[in-house]
Amino acid sequence: xxxxxxxxxxxxxxxxxxxxxxxxxxxxxxxxxxxxxxxxxxxxxxxxxxxxxxxxxxxxxxxxxxxxxxxxxxxxxxxxxxxxxxxxxxxxxxxxxxxxxxxxxxxxxxxxxxxxxxxxxxxxxxxxxxxxxxxxxxxxxxxxxxxxxxxxxxxxxxxxxxxxxxxxxxxxxxxxxxxxxxxxxxxxxxxxxxxxxxxxxxxxxxxxxxxxxxxxxxxxxxxxxxxxxxxxxxxxxxxxxxx
Length: 243
Description:
The protein is mainly α. The protein has helices spanning 9-16, 39-51, 91-115, 135-142, 151-156, 183-190, 197-208, 233-242; strands at 32-33, 36-37, 122-126, 162-166, 217-219, 224-226.
């Protein structure tokens, strides 16, 4: 629900194999919060696209929301940014948390809708990064701010929530630590879709290296995050194979 050319999506999505690409011009009189199309309208578009599919058609929809995009310094007539407050001096955090409240309500409506459809549906919900909030607020959370952090404390700044929900029966599972590179594998497994060779490798890697990104990896042996260059033994071998 934003500009078509952002991050070259108008060309990249076609190369990814998507059949259709909808941008902000595909929304008719959307409900907006601040200057962005709201999550409510974004999720309504998912429902609309699902409703027009054929009876035997399988559909994959990937949506990037814009409602909660930074910055959070301005005030807006169409949004009450103090629904949730963590202190008068943290106005950016107040606005962000109040936006999350709107996202929660929109997400509840989306899941309620898909609870009532007959086709099997899987919803994967995740964030791509934490919000850019003032250093004083980060210091309130971790006691340090953005500098002088250990590897573990640094990784905490890259942690985002996610969940996978289905309208068909699946066993509940809590994933304590993972990383974005494994999300496609978790998604395919929950959909009962046979894993391609690369995802089969990722499923094995996930058992050895539960989380990995450009900053480091989670060591099962040491039960903490470490820099990739500090890996030894079997963990180093798996990371090299992944590379």
